Amino acid sequence: LEYRKKIRPLRIKTLDGSIKTILVDDSATVAEITKTVCDRIGIINPEEFCLYPEQETSEMTLRRQQQQAHVRNQKEMERLKKRLHTDDESNWLNIHKSLREQGIDETEVLILRKGLYVTDDNVDVNDP
Fold this sequence. Notes:
Layout: E1 7-13, E2 19-25, H1 30-41, E3 49-53, H2 58-69, H3 74-83, E4 109-114
Parallel strand pairs: 1-4
Antiparallel strand pairs: 1-2, 3-4
């Protein structure tokens, strides 16, 4: 049995390279944490942003290997990747799990980045 604090510091690296430390609820899902981070930074559309760690965890490596095992036609995938630019190599965190469930501890830095582009109506000069 291990006791941990409910609120923990989370280090977030934004696209401009600055690292911000924000206190978040350790039991919250990544989606809830992303919303909290965006609110505190001043981003108005948090549903478009996602988090991923600077360094890959063992669970992410296993998940990526399983996804690669399911690809049947590698040439077709390469052709599609050339046509559609994706961040397939980025190891996005699962938004339905907490940071603890995904093996992210207090010392790791997470990168806040746009993962989804919902509409162009949300484009703003203040939006990173």
